[in-house]
Amino acid sequence: MPRPIPVAAAAMLACFSTLVVAQQLIVYPARGQSPQQQQQDEAQCRSWATQNTGIDPAVLAATPVAGPSGPAFGGGERLGGAARGAVGGLAIGAIAGDAGQGAAIGAVAGTMAGGRQARQNRSGQQQQVQSQRQQQMDTWNRAVAACLEARGYTVR
Fold this sequence. Notes:
By secondary structure, the protein is mainly α. The protein contains six helices and two strands, in the order ααβααααβ. It has helices at 4-15, 17-21, 35-53, 57-62, 77-96, 99-150; strands at residues 27-28, 154-155.
């Protein structure tokens, strides 16, 4: 029986991936900088952070988290499941008197199990990519904050 919770969690994670990347710093002009000066300083600090970390938030946001999906994709889990199911079904079918039908039933069951494994693997990969993106954004945000704090802003 497939477990829909991990698949649903992965789908929600993919949908909210751009929200994590789009987190904003809160910047307060502690030395009374004008709004125009703050805007200029923030733009310069964002540019500096991108140059010094090699991380571009626009590129991260534009890159999809989810890879290809569907029956043609995966690491061969469906095919492997079908093969294992066919072998198991063949053995059971031979005992019951119809090895061919047992192999066919086993192959179908194995394909379904392989599909479930492919979805779980894809979900794990998506979570890993999302975690890496979050780490990159944290690094970039720390660089922007360091630059702004050096210019007299309070950053949270």
